[in-house]
Amino acid sequence: MDIKGRILQSLRPRRDGLLLRQDAKSFGSPSQVSAALRSLADSGLIEKLDCGIYAKPSKVAQLGREALL
């Protein structure tokens, strides 16, 4: 499984819908993780809330950015 798949798989069961960059650091090198997170955010599968904080778009729509932060 590639890094993008591992990131999405780790985000799927989370109730709060949040993913910290620190949670994904074991999936690859820092540059590989950055590229995967950027690609997922560009494709709309995750949303970047702040530096190192990502969330499911459905949770952002449901709760709002400020509530998640």
Task: Output the keywords.
4 helices; 14% strand; alpha+beta; Arc Repressor Mutant, subunit A; single chain; globular; 69 residues
Mind explaining what this structure looks like?
The protein is α+β, with helices and mostly antiparallel strands. The protein has one domain (3-68): Arc Repressor Mutant, subunit A (Orthogonal Bundle). It is built from four helices and three strands. It has helices spanning 3-11, 30-42, 57-63, 65-68; strands spanning 18-20, 47-50, 53-55. It has a three-stranded antiparallel sheet. The longest helix has 13 residues, at 30-42. The chain is globular. It starts with a helix and ends with a helix. The relative contact order is 0.20.
What sequence of helices (H) and strands (E) makes up the elements? HEHEEHH
Secondary structural class: alpha+beta
Strand adjacency order, main sheet: 1-3-2
Helix content percent band: 40-55%
| CATH architecture identity | Orthogonal Bundle
Low-confidence stretches: none
Remind me, CATH topology? Arc Repressor Mutant, subunit A
Number of strands: 3
Q: What is the CATH class designation? A: Mainly Alpha
Number of separate helices? 4
Using only C-alpha atoms, the radius of gyration works out to 11 Å
The figure for the number of domains is 1
Topology:
Layout: H1 3-11, E1 18-20, H2 30-42, E2 47-50, E3 53-55, H3 57-63, H4 65-68
Antiparallel strand pairs: 1-3, 2-3
